[in-house]
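Thread: Newbie trying to understand structure tokens

Hi all, I'm a second-year student working on a class project, and my supervisor (Dr. K.) asked me to get a predicted structure for one chain before our next meeting. I've only ever worked with sequences, so writing a 3D structure as a token string is new to me. If someone could post the tokens and maybe explain what I'm looking at, I'd be very grateful. Here's the chain:
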Amino acid sequence: MVATSIIAFSLFTLALGNPMQRRAMKLHEARQGAPEGFTQVGSASPSATLRMRVALAQSNPAGLTDALMDVSTPDSANYGQHLTKEDVDKFVAPSADTLSAVNAWLAENDLTATPLTSAGDWLGFEVSVEKANELLDAQFVTFKHDETGDETIRTLAYSIPADLQSHIELVHPTISFPNPLAKVPVFSTPAKSNVAQANLTSDAVPASCASTITPACLQALYSIPTTRATQSSNVLAVSGFIEQFANQADLKQFLTALRPDIASTTTFTLQTLDGGTNSQTRSQAGIEANLDIQYTIGVATGVPTVFISVGEQFQDGGLEGFLDIINFLNGETNPPHVLTTSYGQNENTISSTLANRLCTAYQQLGARGTSILFASGDGGVAGSQTTRCTTFLPTFPSGCPFMTSVGATTGVPETSASFSSGGFSNVFTRPSYQSAAVTSYLNRLGTTNSGKFNTAGRAFPDVAAMGDNVEIVFQGSTGLVAGTSCSSPIFASIISLINDRLIAAGRSPLGFLNPFLYSTAASAFNDITTGSNPGCNTNGFPALSGWDPVTGLGTPNFPALLAAAGL
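---
Reply by user tm_fold:
Sure, no problem. This is what the structure looks like when written as tokens:
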């Protein structure tokens, strides 16, 4: 009913002010209501500015998927023969007809768009709320998040000209909501530091690791070598959002205490976008950024590491940042070989169309030889740290089949961390590479949690690593943190060390990991068979032998993974 009244109002307005015949409009995207936790508080100010993005129809996205799988599947003749930037751009570039049609529509409305990607498949422009309502037959209003008080301008439905339906995939921000519950790990001070007790033997894990995880513990648990990497081209990238800054003084203190075998001056390079910065004022250091940098540099010995700080010069929420960092890396001639990200949100906050476009962007980077890893989330089957649910909430982007999702373990010997998010996507179907492993799990699960998840969805996480009682240095103090935020950089470091050896042997980096992980490397993991990930007033999923939606295939065994990679 709202949409009908908007259309009538828009037609009346145009009849008075625009002699051009009104294009026939057609509903393009809609949602029944705001995600749980958001309340509509009133109309948005007509003069408020929206930074709009238009996703144009791509030339051959199916061809991109085929090409990605061809270079990522170990038994393929083209395995490891990754694509160039130019190769990938050809798959996603819009047709000349699409560009002409969309730009003509914008020009009719006195708008000029700027290409946001090298392939030209995203356009951007700024517009007032009043103009956006007219342009899209929408009603942009202000929503407030009940817990945080954060406000955001969104609409529950919008239309585009009917003749542009085949040219435009989506307009954003419209029906996708930000993630106000994005949280960084909680920092706690241990009663006593166990650093001095971490004296390793070749065949034992120090007793201290049962309560405090350090790089030495990870080296013992996963047989990670301390040998220094040698390949300068083998870059490991750490993404940073929400003004989380990685502090060099904290890193030096961390290395001095926990990696005394490498120079305490070892540091990282910096890239920025969207107005990102990386303040070195120690009181502004971020827990998440410090964790991610300390457990990449501190585990991936000698691997060149870059911290990519994404600022907030976009509309709001993290999705624009997720899109911008991938488009930024897709635009580079030589993108990093590994990218780790410890942020995410519930899948139900995002339009399925936007989720798919972000997933396509991950395909682009994966086809060029980059392994993309994301933390799976810290709310068990309740997604991103929420319990207000009756059915399980998958997280995004873990449901995307073209990245690697990392869950968490705790304790020695390892068991599932109860907070480790995992489950089944409601947007993405199950990819063939995990079909056998997931089907086996579902058969053993039986009727447990029946009706609470999508049995046909892409299942996650794919793998796991330690995520509890992890020791870091934060603003000069030593303390412990927990979350899958710990697990993703740890696993990313292991992949980077394998890449270093592959490149030294004249071979390609692993690139998109999942076809390799679920086939050749399926037995190269420590199987986690205890624990579960409760949420939504249930016990969640149980960890069982083989793959499970708590710890995936398990935690890494470095020598076994190296052997699976053919080294």
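A couple of things are worth pointing out once you decode it. Residues 216-564 form a domain with the Rossmann fold fold (CATH 3.40.50.200). The first strand starts at residue 25 and ends at 30. Feel free to ask follow-ups in this thread.
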